[in-house]
């Protein structure tokens, strides 16, 4: 028997089939391997993403915690600030009170007392310190006048300011002691009779002049008389400006204490004088308690 012979054609077909099968198998294996890799990568990505989400969540949480801390710190700071502010304010109030008390302890309470027919000043009362008024400010240069030491600069400034406005003001008299006031009253009583003298001159002990804070002003054109002072330019000038230097008109027109004394001006401090000026009140309109609240600042 002869060996069956395969034609070369068939042989080459078989070879091709084998090669193709081999390629298919190789392809299949390769694809499977790639799929596995893709699946593994997908799993990696998924797990990485999960991890990243976790980290982001953690960061977000940390951030919001940090923000909350900052807010809390801010509110702590502002609370501390407001506490410090409160303490400062308290300290300020206390030191203000202390300085007011110190001023008060050094200020003669008589300086803002009412003195008129019903308010009496002790015969032994004398102002703490007085100084002589410079001669060029006096109407009678040969008769020395004194005034409270701390009021003199204010009085001088007032007269200088008037002069700057072409208004001439002189001091006719200032401090009068208890005895001088008594002598003056006696003299007036002899000349005018007791009834008339009582209308315009205070008895000793009831005069603001004994305080050393008060001045009678005079101007030119009155022949040395006080009467008629309200008809001169000096009077309206004083009404408009004296308060700026702490002086007030004690006995204005229609007051119930004395006759109208346009020449008689008392120092009560700039604060009180300004208050009276702005409220259109006179010193004797106020009660003593209200007046006393201005005492600590009388020389400010
Ligand atoms: Zn007077």
UniProtKB/TrEMBL annotation:
Record bears the keyword Transmembrane: yes
Keywords, alphabetical: Coiled coil, Membrane, Transmembrane, Transmembrane helix
Top-level division of the source organism's lineage: Bacteria
Gene Ontology molecular-function annotations: peptidase activity
Single GO biological process annotation from the record: proteolysis
Record-annotated D-alanyl-D-alanine carboxypeptidase-like core domain positions: 150-269
Signal peptide region: none
Residue ranges the record marks as coiled coil: 56-83
Full protein name: D-alanyl-D-alanine carboxypeptidase-like core domain-containing protein
Annotated organism of origin: Candidatus Taylorbacteria bacterium RIFCSPHIGHO2_01_FULL_51_15
Species lineage: Bacteria, Candidatus Tayloriibacteriota
């Amino acid at each position: 028997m002869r060996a069956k012979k395969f034609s070369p054609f068939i042989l080459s077909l078989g070879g091709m089939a084998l090669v193709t099968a081999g390629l298919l198998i190789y392809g299949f294996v390769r694809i499977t391997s790639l799929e596995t890799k893709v699946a593994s990568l997908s799993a990696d990505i998924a797990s990485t993403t999960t991890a990243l989400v976790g980290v982001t969540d953690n960061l977000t949480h940390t951030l919001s915690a940090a923000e909350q801390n900052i807010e809390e710190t801010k509110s702590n700071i502002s609370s501390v600030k407001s506490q410090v502010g409160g303490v400062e304010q308290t300290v300020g109030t206390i030191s203000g009170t202390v300085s007011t008390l110190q001023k008060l302890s050094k200020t003669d309470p008589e300086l803002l007392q009412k003195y008129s027919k019903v308010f009496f000043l002790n015969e032994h009362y004398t102002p703490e310190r007085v100084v002589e008024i410079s001669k060029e400010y006096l109407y009678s240069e040969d008769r020395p006048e004194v005034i409270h030491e701390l009021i003199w600069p204010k009085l001088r400034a007032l007269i200088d300011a008037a002069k700057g406005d072409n208004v001439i003001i002189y001091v006719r008299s200032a401090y009068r002691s208890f005895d001088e006031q008594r002598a003056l009253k006696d003299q007036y009583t002899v000349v005018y009779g007791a009834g008339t003298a009582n209308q315009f001159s205070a008895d000793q002990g009831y005069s603001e002049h004994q305080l050393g804070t008060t001045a009678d002003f005079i101007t030119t054109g009155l022949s040395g008389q006080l009467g008629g002072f309200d008809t001169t330019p000096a009077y309206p000038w004083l009404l408009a400006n004296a308060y700026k230097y702490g002086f007030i008109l004690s006995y204005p027109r229609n007051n119930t204490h004395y006759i109208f004394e346009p020449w008689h001006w008392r120092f009560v401090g700039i604060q009180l004088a300004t208050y009276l000026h702005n409220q259109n009140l006179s010193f004797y309109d106020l009660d003593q308690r209200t007046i006393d609240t201005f005492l600590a600042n009388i020389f400010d």
